[in-house]
Design a protein that fits this description.
3-stranded antiparallel β-sheet; alpha/beta; Aspartate Aminotransferase, domain 1; 7-stranded mixed β-sheet; lyase activity; 2 domains; lyase; Aspartate Aminotransferase, domain 2; Aminotrans_V_dom
Length: 364
């Protein structure tokens, strides 16, 4: 299989206005935390790939160009060398690599009410005596310092947008010899990841279909060399081979020596759509994206009498479902999460979306 490493444009060379122009405007879609919108280039690439498939012109080597481009672009987003990046389809199997490496009777610390793709893989090892302690996200470092084998958290909490202090978490984990794992799914695309948290966690995982606007079925892991040495490639397969096309038969397993050893075979069409999206987010000035997204979110908070939170996600209490009902009736795309309503502002949103939310709530 041909491995193509495209040129790596410097991050920050794509103006925010140009990135915004790559999306078709969908008024009232305030739900990037559930699923991002596709770039027009992503939709075009998928249509072209379907046409090529229909004509019998699609080949694995052609698809691998998109996989390689996506891997290289994500490495720039995460601020790591491309050799440290593994691809997958979802985050939970990638978290599962770390969970399987916890010793019998080991101890794991997780954030309370974190997304279950981070917590369930560890809970599934209870039969080996693995215990999982859930603590408030602000107390992760303190809990890790008490002793554990792994401390795992989302950088940005899916439920309410709180941002974890992953630097403190990794420092505490290092002091007790634990592995730190950070899920950046709800952060990558709006929260700058360079130089952290890639440098602030032994393992990071990310599903790219939310804020990075790739199709579902595209996910990544990054590992430090020391962490990679502790992980077993549980899904060892031909695509993870040192030479993939020499790894399709037999028992002579020769896996890649770098992050590719943890690859799973890609769902081809998803990666065709991912390549242009990830390239755009690798080139954009992410600080400008952060200012735009958080600016809209904090504007809404202020107009609702809430304090700013520095997150692109806004969570509103909604015990009886009436808030969600009013927003739905106003034609706004939002999500119900954890007994509240979650709004997630991204690059396609503007002040009109904030006005519509306020008007819908004021009308009550």
């Amino acid at each position: 299989m041909t491995t193509v490493t495209p040129a790596a444009p410097r991050p920050g060379t794509l103006p925010l206005a140009d990135l915004r122009a790559m999306f078709r405007r969908v008024p009232g879609h305030i739900d990037a935390a559930t699923s991002g919108l596709p770039l027009t280039a992503t939709a075009d690439a998928l249509r072209s790939a379907l046409d090529a498939w229909t004509a019998g012109e699609a080949t694995p080597a052609t698809y691998d160009v998109s996989v390689a481009a996506s891997r290289a672009a994500y490495a720039r987003v995460a601020g790591v060398d491309v050799t440290r990046v593994a691809i997958g389809a979802q985050t939970s199997p990638l978290v599962g690599l770390v969970a399987a490496a916890v010793p019998d009777g080991g101890r794991v610390v997780v954030a309370e009410d974190d997304f279950t793709s981070v917590t369930y893989p560890f809970l599934a090892h209870a039969d080996r005596g693995v215990t999982v302690r859930a603590v408030p996200v602000g107390h992760l470092a303190e809990a890790a310092a008490d002793g554990c084998d792994v401390v795992a958290t989302s950088l940005v909490q899916s439920r309410d947008g709180r941002v974890a202090d992953v630097g403190a978490v990794r420092a505490a984990a290092a002091r007790v010899g634990a592995v730190s794992l950070v899920d950046v799914t709800q952060a990558a695309g709006w929260l700058p990841l360079v130089p952290a948290p890639a440098d602030h966690a032994d393992v990071t995982v990310c599903s790219a279909y939310k804020w990075l606007c790739a199709p579902r079925g595209t996910a990544f892991a990054t590992t430090t060399p020391a962490a990679a040495a502790r992980l077993r490639p549980l899904a060892a397969n031909w695509y993870a081979g040192d030479d993939p096309w020499a790894s399709v038969y037999g028992t002579d397993m020769r896996l890649a020596s770098d992050g590719r050893r943890f690859d799973t075979s890609p769902a081809w069409l998803s990666w065709v759509g991912a390549a242009p999206a990830l390239d755009a987010f690798a080139r954009v000035d992410v600080a400008a994206v952060h200012a735009h997204d958080v600016g809209l979110a904090d504007d809404l908070r202020g107009r609702l009498g809430l304090d700013p939170a520095g997150s692109a996600i806004v969570s509103l209490a909604d015990d009886d479902g009436s808030v969600r009902a009013r927003l739905d009736a106003a034609g706004l795309r939002v999500a119900g999460r954890g007994g509240g309503v979650r709004l997630a502002f991204h690059v396609w949103n503007d002040s009109d979306d904030v006005d519509r939310v306020v008007a819908a709530l004021d009308a009550a």
